[in-house]
Design a protein that fits this description.
Its cofactor is heme b. Keywords: Heme, Iron, Metal-binding, Oxidoreductase, Peroxidase, Signal. Belongs to the chloroperoxidase family. There is one protein chain. This protein is mainly alpha-helical and 447 residues long. The termini are far apart. Helices cover 46% and strands 4% of the residues. The structure holds 2-acetamido-2-deoxy-beta-D-glucopyranose (3 copies). The site of one 2-acetamido-2-deoxy-beta-D-glucopyranose has 17 residues, from loops.
Length: 447
């Protein structure tokens, strides 16, 4: 089995250079120049919206609950027929947010990015409100509020720190690049490598995401919530009994991946990015439902919308708003970890289409052990693409330490023999493009 995976990985490399020829070169940079101008506009827009939204957003959970049935007009067209009601089997100790963690919209220097769950945790102060976090803070906050398994948060933090953060301090930005993640000197300093945060494209952030546009299709804005994508999610939920359940989210992946294939000449779906994106769909009902999904939990608009950062207005327009935990919401009672992600991935992949990718074939096979080991192999063997320097001793020691600390349990879970194989590498996204993005400012729009 080991040999099989290795030869597939070698094949993977060969296929990737033909499937993604642009990965090698610095092309397509022109589109990003515009971004520098847009950045200033976005900051203004955000400051303006901050005031307006402060008042609006608190109503998201309760408004939707009150008006979800029997409403008429534009709002009714959107929400009538969607599932309502409270969860069953909930336990008071799983209720959030608590009084010490009130919602507060982010300020202009606070980082928010591609992950609605982390944005929500920061908006409630379960993570530092400035959005500059350590791996340990993320692992404990995601466990406390979402009951995410530590193996899964460890893996996600490994990706975030290795590809977008500071290896020395295990700190990263949950949005874009930020001076506050850098160390003054050494491996974590800016002169050694740039730390582009969670928004770093094709590292932590990938194409075909549930509510973010593809990087190339939105002038390099790979991290702002898109009301139109949410509107399509509402329509899919209606077709599916009114529920925001796994089949609904998988259908959304089907639509989004199709859009990427049709419109995005730079669509990239491979490696850890593909796994993160596949995971991003089913985890919405798994983590955002009120109560335990599959055991009395309810994946209703009332919970999904505020946690994903959307508000529906009476006139039927939908606005992106800062993510919020609805009042009186209950987290899942049982942990959800890597084994769950791996078990869900084939179903999500089957609903969509991706470019030819050997990893896709392995996921499609449904062999969970092989998927898990492949993922471990990919993560533990890929050199940190943010490092513009060869793997010098100090860096590889830090990486090995991080790997043991954050990914250590994976080989046992999936029965992988041997440690990650450093002879296997994947092509990295062209880093010269990263710095041209708009920074971590979420652009909150309505549509
Ligand atoms: C969650 O479910 C509980 C128990 O049924 C209910 O009391 C509460 O209002 C629900 N909260 C939300 C935000 O839907
Ligand atoms: C890593 O790959 C090389 C080349 O295929 C192989 O000889 C070696 O045994 C592998 N090591 C592990 C730990 O799997
Ligand atoms: C994605 O967004 C981040 C944050 O704005 C930015 O730093 C990055 O350059 C963007 N694009 C790419 C290709 O990563």
């Amino acid at each position: 089995m080991k040999l099989g995976i290795l030869s597939l990985l070698v094949l993977a490399q060969a296929l990737q250079s033909s499937a993604y020829p642009w990965m090698a070169g610095p092309g397509a940079e022109r589109a990003y120049d515009e971004m520098l101008h847009r950045r200033a506009e976005k900051l203004e827009e955000r400051a303006l919206l901050g005031g307006v939204l402060g008042g609006l957003v608190t109503g998201v959970g309760s408004t939707a609950g009150g008006v979800i049935s029997g409403v008429t007009g534009a709002l009714g067209n959107l929400v009538n027929g969607l599932a309502t009601g409270g969860a069953s089997n909930v336990d008071a100790s799983n209720r959030f947010p608590d009084v010490n963690h009130p919602f507060q919209a982010p300020g202009p220097t606070d980082q928010r990015g591609v992950c609605p769950g982390l944005n929500a945790l920061a908006n409630h102060g379960y993570l530092p409100r400035n959005g500059i976090v350590t791996a340990q803070q993320v692992i404990s906050a995601t466990k406390q509020v979402f009951n995410m398994g530590e193996d899964l948060s460890g893996l996600l933090c490994f990706i975030a720190v290795t590809y977008g953060g500071n290896l020395q301090t295990q700190t990263f930005s949950i949005g874009g690049e930020d001076d506050r993640t850098y160390s003054g000197s050494g491996i974590g300093s800016k002169s050694v490598s740039r730390q582009f945060g969670l928004d770093a494209h094709s590292r932590c952030e990938g194409d075909s995401s549930p509510t973010r546009n593809d990087f190339y299709l939105d002038n390099g804005d790979n991290h702002s919530q898109q009301p139109d994508r949410f509107r399509r999610l509402l329509a899919l939920a209606k077709q599916n009994g009114g529920n925001f359940d796994t089949p609904t989210l998988n259908a959304l992946f089907g639509q989004n991946s199709q859009l990427s294939i049709q419109n995005n000449p730079k669509y990239y779906a491979n490696g850890p990015t593909l796994v993160v994106i596949l995971a991003a769909y089913p985890i919405i009902p798994e983590f955002f439902s009120n109560g335990t999904y599959g055991a009395g939990g309810k994946a209703t608009l009332q919970n999904i919308a505020p946690l994903m950062g959307f508000k529906i207005n009476d006139d039927g327009t939908i606005c992106a708003v800062p993510e919020q935990i609805p009042d009186n919401w209950y987290r899942r009672a049982t942990p959800y970890g890597i084994a769950n992600v791996v078990a869900n991935a084939p179903g999500t992949l089957a609903a969509g289409n991706t470019l030819p990718s050997p990893l896709s074939s392995i996921i499609a096979s449904g062999n969970t052990n092989e998927i898990g080991c492949q993922l471990y192999q990919l993560l533990s063997s890929q050199s940190p693409a943010t490092l513009g320097v060869p793997l010098v001793d100090g860096v590889s020691t830090l990486l090995t330490g991080l790997q043991n600390q954050l990914l250590g349990g994976l080989p046992t879970i999936f029965g992988c023999s041997g440690a990650g194989n450093s002879t296997v590498t994947q092509p990295a996204f062209d880093d010269s493009l990263q710095a041209k993005g708009p920074g971590g400012d979420q652009s909150l729009t309505c549509a």
